[in-house]
Protein 1
Amino acid sequence: MTVADAPSTHWQAVEALRAADPLIADLLTAEDERRADSLQLLAGENLATPAVLAALAGPLVDKYAEGYPGRRHHTGCAPADTVELLAIDRARELFSAPHANVQPRSATSAVLAAYAALLRPGDAVLAMSLEHGGHLSAGSRANFSGRWFQFHGYGVREEDGLIDLEQVRRLALEHRPKAIVAGGISYPRHLDWAAFREIADEVDAYLIATAGQTAGLVAAGAAPSPVPYADVTVVATHKLLRGPRGGLLLCGDELADRIDRAVFPFCQGGAAMNEVAAKAVALAQAATPGFAEYVHRAVDGARALAAALAAAGAAPLTGGTDTHLVTAEVGSLGLTGVEAERRCAAAGLMLGRCAVPYDPAPPTETSGIRLGTGGCAAQGMGESELGEVGELLGRVLSGAAAEPVRARVRELARAFAGRR
Ligand SMILES: *Cc1c(COP(=O)(O)O)cnc(C)c1O
């Protein structure tokens, strides 16, 4: 086979898949149809850009390039080296960070590498508690983090749902953590990074910013950056950034070596170089005015959606949002999060149940829902469409018949299907 007749184009590749594995090809078609027929509102999901998809399917998928540019364990790494150096430079520039590591395969891997770089087994760590919106990697007993380190959790105030910085300070003074983790997965407000830095300095702790959800906002100038304050910042590339599934780490020069050695070889082997290429593409796209417009549209849409939910009696936590995320309480509508998620899914509105702070329901039921507008905004939706989505959600949650809502959701989904 010559280069010319190798299955190098997307369509040839799809045909090869159909021929080799019709079962998987049909399931991928089914996934396409599922998405075209419903609205994707899961907080952590987004649509990678077409350029990112092309890089993911490109020839670097095959390349072994263990190590770092110029210091590889494998030969033939010249293009891969340049790709990784570009990804690093673009990450540094986009986030104004002295050093970047673009190899973590997921945000969780990036978090664990940050711990590996800064902590020893048994060290105390202060992080947002899981019940109040912390991620599993912030000390769940089911995760590496909760077994190897001594996690203590801070939370939000019951009256307004905002992070209680006084509690953070009190717990920091009490437990003297080696690191404080700022950030979570369902907190819809900006974080006060300077206040976290001050508390970390008071107890001589490292500050790790887990900006999985926030990084896209920061890139667009729609949220304050943790980078000037945190010792290490963790970014998810597949969320608002619209890149490939993965993570990256940002830090100052003094921690650069430790971070790099923690990612490889401590936590990972060879990086997925196609993912590194796709990260480079996403980082370049995130520096454009078009991306900033997209992010502001996602945030305006989330505000409209939160207002519509509030009008329907599903109170948004913290009273609203500064971001593309909305977390709402559905217990006052007589629903559990599980039932709310089921009803919304039946109407084609795909969102996630979640525990709310001080949740009276068990974790298997929960009293809340969490959603994000990144995917809908990536398809071109804005404030008016997402406001309508909020009204549709309100109707479903208030017990209206599903069918008319399902019909309107299908219409909206079809109108924007295939766009990204
Ligand atoms: C999304 C997210 C994670 C998990 O990311 P994965 O890539 O699924 O491992 C962890 N922490 C934070 C803060 C996140 O936003």
Protein 2
Amino acid sequence: MTELHTPYFLVDEERLVRNLEILKDVAQRSGAKILLAQKAFSMFACYPLLAQYLSGSTASGLYEARLGREHFPGEVHVFSPAYREDEFEALLEYADHFVFNSPRQLEKYALRAREAGKQVGLRVNPECSTQEGHAIYDPCAPGSRLGTTLANFNPDQLPLLDGLHFHTLCEQNSDDLETTLDAFEAKFGPYLKGLKWLNLGGGHHITRADYDRKRLIRLVRRVKDRYGVEVYLEPGEAVVLNAGFLVTSVLDTLHNGMDIAILDTSAACHMPDVLEMPYRPPLQNSGQPGEKPYTYRLGGPTCLAGDIIGDYSFDNPLHEGDRLIFEDMALYTMVKTNTFNGMPLPAIVWRDKDGNQRVVRQFGYEDFKGRLS
Ligand SMILES: *Cc1c(COP(=O)(O)O)cnc(C)c1O
């Protein structure tokens, strides 16, 4: 890995295919259709590979829908909290399934979508929180704008609908899906009969080692048997879990009450979830602070005092030019990078199953300047 210019994202075909095989197996055993949620990972260079294993892609709006249509053979689904009038016609060119967030949006757009031959769905809110600690990832939190609650659901609109959708999970196992599905069925089950499909959203950590896939398969089959509908899953994270890295170099080391290293990658610009979620990303050949003899605080090269990736310990002192490899960096990274402080964007590198590395994309000054005027 030493010949390439850092920082760069490295996506590994072998690890990606391992995930894709698991997902394909789940789809085959359960009868569910599985889509890539592009929000988490939009490296379109590998969409043709993903399409060999998945049924299509899902989008959060016009641009993702277009990217999916242009590069990902298969179905294109879209959900938006509120569609824009000035984009809707264009969206009809790209998406097959339209999921709306509210009765008003349904009223405004559903007939137009149907007349264009599209499938129409409504996102519902089963009002069943199953996650602790991450309120910003909980669409069932009080006051949520995401999904129609039973109180706001208008059964008179059923003739407009082909399906229902809920998305309530984040990095969760299938026991939480079961809890949510029970709550969904208690509220909306009667309305699902007669429709064509149910979309169970994303947040299913299907490819994680401890994920209970048997239960997921049983739940999907239960829905299909009970209601006679197709079932969709639209994971983002699970598709690329542990399939990517962020390779970075040490630019400088200093000491201020503790050892500090400045890297050529930034939490704020290249892995903003580290600050937003927040979490401490795994780093190869490192330990918890104090676990190995040399502990460093790793930070980025921006002016933001809080541009800190975390504290890690090492077997040996760090030196200028040392390479560090952050793990699990394919998801919610490339799609969220920014050029704050004029930071360059990391290159995107593909490692095929024979170990050959290819730079798929490099970025430069124009990518910084092009967003400004
Ligand atoms: C974010 C999102 C997903 C994907 O979620 P992951 O946690 O990446 O699996 C799927 N569907 C919807 C509607 C989403 O908002």
